Amino acid sequence: MALASRIGRAGKVGQGRCGAVTESTGERWMVAAKCRTTDPDTLFVEGAAQNQVKALCGGCPVRTVCLAHALDHRIEHGVWGGMTERERRALLRRRPLVTSWRRLLATAQAEYERTADAERTEAS
């Protein structure tokens, strides 16, 4: 069963479970996720097993959007965007005034890419 379908059955955002993440909810990024065909039971683990799940997020083209989704919707369980629930809670505590993680992370990513492009140009 597809990840979006399985996650959609997990519960509602804000109730201690992750919410429905499907194309019908406007979250089209899910179809590009590396984990989209992964059994969701492997994404919602505890302890040391989370490190293996985090490794799956490496190189995912939608990692930043995935993380922003989890932060914006206060998703409490599972690994999202390469961060565990504990790591996300700590980040939310450190940055309580952020109103849109999606906007903040997109801006940071764009700035990083501009800087990297400028450095590559200078090196040429």
From TrEMBL:
Pfam families reported in the protein's UniProt record: Whib (PF02467)
Highest taxon, organism lineage: Bacteria
Keyword Protein biosynthesis among record annotations: no
Signal peptide residues on this chain, from the entry's feature table: none
Gene Ontology MF: a single term: DNA binding
Cofactor(s) needed: [4Fe-4S] cluster
Keyword Secreted recorded: no
Any GO CC annotation of this UniProt entry: cytoplasm
Domain 4Fe-4S Wbl-type per the UniProt entry, residue ranges: 34-90
Places the protein is found: Cytoplasm
GO process terms (BP): cell redox homeostasis; negative regulation of DNA-templated transcription
Keywords of this entry: 4Fe-4S, Cytoplasm, Disulfide bond, DNA-binding, Iron, Iron-sulfur, Metal-binding, Transcription, Transcription regulation
Primary site of residence: cytoplasm
Binding site for [4Fe-4S] cluster: 35, 57, 60, 66
Cofactor annotation comment: Binds 1 [4Fe-4S] cluster per subunit. Following nitrosylation of the [4Fe-4S] cluster binds 1 [4Fe-8(NO)] cluster per subunit.
PANTHER family: TRANSCRIPTIONAL REGULATOR WHIB4 (PTHR38839:SF7), TRANSCRIPTIONAL REGULATOR WHID-RELATED (PTHR38839)
Function (record text): Acts as a transcriptional regulator. Probably redox-responsive. The apo- but not holo-form probably binds DNA.
Family the UniProt entry places it in: Belongs to the WhiB family.
Protein name: Transcriptional regulator WhiB
Organism in which the protein naturally occurs: Streptomyces finlayi
